[in-house]
């Protein structure tokens, strides 16, 4: 919201003069009121954020009309360059009289004229001179003057007084508009050229303007968007390319809080950790943007941060190809631990373990089902490690045939084999030097390459294919697999010595079905990323919670993307992409076997069918909330709901349900868990 400035002076001519100057410099960014001393009689309180007055004498007269919350600026005045030229043209040794709007303002203006260099004449104040002398000497007036005598020897009109340099700066500071002054030469911005008496201040500001202009040219020349924030997060810099990317004009965001306005730009991380973030991929208005953020630190003091942004278009892709030619096929790790979403205890425990592992230099073996985010963890570990400023090189061992994988890992010399690149090629071991090498799907690596990998890990040196010289390499190895390597070792499908070399720091990523409290949370967070605006029904949420999620987080992301593209505002259970799979399970009830199970269940329950259904319903609720129930807990819940069900009855019902494979009774405090068969039969009976 724009703030208001009240301009107060004796005459409307002076007010208009100051108004014109301020408007020329600050455009429409300040709301202004024009007030003369005649207007004051009809005003109780001046409703403005700031009041500009030309003298202390005037302030005393209007003080009672100004609230305590209002700021005051006492104007330092000067004259125009043409006005000074007229004064300098007066004959040397002349005695002249100066008329201004008050005695105080007259004395102040005489001082300004002397300071501007007009010391060849003697200037007297109209308010102190003898009346008979007024007609004998030339009169200097500023614009129109109601005090002008009917007759005088000579009248020299030097034009209305103007606001001096430091007053303009005071206004800029009070209204947070200094950025507008930094983009222009003040002395050339008025309709009338100003002759300032503040020579030192003008010199300093001119020098700053010169540097600002050079910086401005640079900011508009580089092929990237630039946004700068100070240590509090307030935006002080935004170039044209950034305006195009964010869809806002510089004047709309300057002095606004960048941490709130652009939450996807990792400013917070840079300010908090004092670490640069290189080429993070984010979305702004649905477009992919590559952003790098660097903290501004000098002499151990934080001054803010600067973000450099580029759209990930064809030009950006070409730049990335050029970069890859320089550093090989090494990938930059884009993800951090903050990118791993979840609020469940199991996922946070895995993150805490991984954070501690990142400080070490030992090999890590990440295990987990497909889609659990093993590479996400690997990148986060790299970005939290001492090697974060070096390459993160990733390779999928299952994506290459054996011969090609070997050449990718070890590299080759020119002429090593038919089709070898001229000049040879460095391998991934070399490219990962000082950084991290991530071997995904390590279980797919052929046995003979396992032997060679083991030697590289032991000796920290490689020989390119077709070469004979040893190349020293220093990298941290992170391997990942969705298979049980220990079983593969027992079956002779994976080398035992390599297994123990990899499994120094084991990290297991929990499947999504074991972190049910994260399912809806991740669903909503993913929906935001896809700009989805649909709402889930209660039945849809329930089905999401009991779904098995064999594809884990990757399957959940696919599910959200599917629903976003569906275009429906309300998503019910039958709209979910896996509903056909769930229905196919329920449809098995039509088979003779399933019918027999239902009949057997109904016969077993007999007259106590409602009690059996109650127990199954409570076990289903516990399954959805990832809890375990024992017979005592079920008995207490039944009592609360007014159902007579003794512990002994609960125990009998659970045993009979386990015989029908509808529940699984665990030992101790693990409680009883409803099975998928139990869920299906319960759904069939309650729907029927």
UniProtKB/TrEMBL annotation:
One of its GO terms (molecular function) is ATP binding. One of its GO terms (biological process) is regulation of DNA-templated transcription. Keywords: ATP-binding, Nucleotide-binding. Residues 211-259 form the PAS domain. SMART domains: AAA, PAS. Residues 340-565 form the Sigma-54 factor interaction domain. InterPro entries: AAA+_ATPase, AAA_lid_NorR, P-loop_NTPase, PAS, PAS-like_dom_sf, PAS_fold, Sigma_54_int, Sigma_54_int_dom_ATP-bd_1. Gene3D superfamilies: 1.10.8.60, P-loop containing nucleotide triphosphate hydrolases, PAS domain, Winged helix-like DNA-binding domain superfamily/Winged helix DNA-binding domain. Pfam families: AAA_lid_14, PAS, Sigma54_activat. NCBIfam families: sensory_box. This is PAS domain S-box-containing protein.
């Amino acid at each position: 919201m724009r703030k208001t400035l009240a301009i107060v002076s004796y005459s409307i001519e002076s007010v208009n003069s100051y108004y014109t100057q301020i408007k020329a410099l600050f455009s429409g960014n300040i709301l202004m009121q024009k007030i003369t001393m005649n207007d004051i009689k009809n005003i109780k309180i001046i409703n403005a954020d700031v009041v500009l007055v030309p003298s202390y004498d005037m302030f005393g007269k209007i003080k009672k009309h100004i609230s305590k919350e209002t700021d005051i600026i006492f104007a330092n005045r000067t004259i125009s360059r043409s006005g000074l030229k007229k004064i300098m043209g007066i004959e040397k040794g002349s005695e002249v009289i100066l008329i201004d709007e008050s005695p105080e303002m007259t004395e102040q203006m005489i001082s300004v004229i002397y300071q501007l260099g007009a010391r060849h004449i003697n200037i007297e104040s109209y308010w102190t001179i003898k009346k008979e002398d007024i007609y004998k000497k030339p009169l200097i007036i500023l614009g129109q003057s109601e005090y002008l005598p009917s007759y005088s020897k000579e009248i020299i009109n030097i034009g209305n007084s103007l606001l001096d340099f430091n007053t303009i700066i005071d206004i800029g500071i009070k209204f947070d508009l200094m950025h507008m002054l930094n983009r222009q030469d003040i002395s050339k911005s008025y309709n009338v050229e100003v002759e300032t008496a503040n020579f030192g201040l003008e010199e300093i500001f001119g020098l700053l303007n010169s540097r600002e202009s050079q910086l401005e040219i640079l900011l508009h020349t580089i092929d990237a968007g630039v946004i700068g924030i100070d240590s509090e997060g307030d935006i002080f810099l935004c170039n044209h390319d950034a305006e195009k990317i964010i869809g806002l004009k510089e004047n709309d965001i300057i002095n606004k809080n960048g941490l709130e306005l652009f939450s996807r730009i990792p400013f917070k991380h840079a300010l908090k950790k004092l670490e640069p973030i290189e080429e993070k991929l984010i979305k702004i208005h649905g477009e992919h943007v590559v952003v790098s953020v660097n903290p501004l630190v000098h002499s151990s003091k934080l001054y803010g941060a600067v973000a450099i942004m580029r759209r990930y278009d064809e030009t950006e892709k070409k730049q990335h190809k050029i970069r890859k030619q320089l550093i090989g096929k090494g990938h930059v790790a884009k993800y951090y631990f903050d990118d791993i979403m979840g609020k469940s205890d199991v996922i946070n425990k895995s993150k805490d373990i991984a954070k501690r592992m990142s400080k070490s230099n030992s090999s890590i073996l990440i295990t987990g089902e497909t889609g659990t985010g093993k590479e996400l963890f690997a990148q986060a570990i790299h970005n939290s490690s001492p090697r974060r400023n070096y390459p993160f090189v990733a390779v999928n061992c299952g994506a290459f045939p054996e011969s090609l994988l070997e050449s990718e890992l070890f590299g080759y010399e020119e002429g090593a084999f038919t089709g070898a690149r001229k000049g040879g090629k460095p391998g991934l071991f070399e490219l990962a030097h000082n950084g991290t090498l991530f071997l995904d799907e390590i279980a797919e690596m052929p046995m003979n390459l396992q032997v060679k990998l083991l030697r590289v890990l032991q000796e920290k040196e490689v020989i390119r294919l077709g070469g004979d010289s040893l190349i020293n390499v220093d990298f941290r190895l992170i391997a990942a697999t969705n298979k049980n390597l220990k079983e593969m070792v027992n079956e002779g499908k994976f080398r035992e010595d390599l297994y123990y070399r990899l499994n120094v720091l084991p990290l297991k990523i929990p499947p999504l079905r074991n972190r049910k409290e994260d399912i809806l949370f991740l669903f909503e967070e993913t929906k935001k990323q896809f700009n989805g605006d649909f709402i889930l029904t209660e039945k849809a949420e329930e089905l999401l919670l009991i779904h098995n999620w064999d594809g884990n987080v990757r399957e959940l992301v696919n599910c959200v993307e599917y629903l976003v593209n569906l275009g429906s505002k309300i998503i019910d259970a039958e709209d979910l992409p896996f509903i056909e799979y769930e229905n196919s399970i329920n449809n098995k009830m039509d088979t003779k076997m399933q019918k027999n199970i239902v009949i057997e269940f109904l016969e077993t329950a007999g007259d106590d069918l409602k009690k059996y259904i109650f127990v199954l319903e409570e076990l289903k609720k516990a399954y959805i909330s990832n809890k375990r129930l024992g017979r005592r807990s079920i008995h207490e819940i039944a009592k609360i709901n007014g159902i007579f069900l003794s512990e002994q009855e609960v125990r009998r019902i659970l045993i009979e349900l386990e015989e029908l494979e509808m529940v699984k009774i665990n030992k101790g405090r693990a409680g009883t868990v409803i099975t998928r068969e139990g869920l299906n039969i319960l759904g069939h009976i309650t729907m029927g």
